[in-house]
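I'll show a record.
***
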Amino acid sequence: MTRRTLLVCLAGVVLTSSAWAAPDELSTVLKGIQDRYNHAKTLQVNFNETYTVAGRPRQSESGVLTLRKPGRMRWDYTTPPGKLFLSDGKDVYLYTPEAKRVEKMPLKESEDMRAPLAFLLGKLDFRKEFRDIQMKQEGGQYVITAKSKSDRLPYDSIQLTATPQWQIVNLVVTQQDQSILAFNLSDEKVNPTVNDASFKFQMPPGATLVNPETGQ
């Protein structure tokens, strides 16, 4: 499966036996998370991602994610080194160094699982985007599960874990085909100084630009 077929709750996760949160407690937590990220202009965080399909996890990848409103993001991979996923707010680019290949497509048409992470800098509204929202506490953190309101989206459900400071430290997305992409997030920086030029894609020397529709 190509990255293009991916798009942003781990299926079968065993939760603690504590009761689901009361509606007022859930609303407080959702508001806290929304306020933290909706008020941010820029965000930078270390990530480790693992993609699982048919129950078989692939090798994990890691690096640094930088986000900036509106709709700009940059994934600089250290594992594998040199890999880059970038959005300039209009188009998205995926550079795979071992293949010397660049895929480009409109942001709105991208079904990459990483794209929904831009919600961290969007107008996050849990009640608008999700249904069947539930929450439990685990180890002093909040574990929230929710289903997508639209079956037209590539992802079916999410699970996120947030700290008492409303920081998201884990995000797991289950796609409609039940493939799973999990992110562990750490060392988050809210509103760091970010150079706008870092969101302008530069074609790497020797790389080939590929149209995902035609493969050429």
User: Anything to note?
Assistant: The domain at 3-10+21-200 is CATH 2.50.20.10 (outer membrane lipoprotein receptor (LolB), chain A).
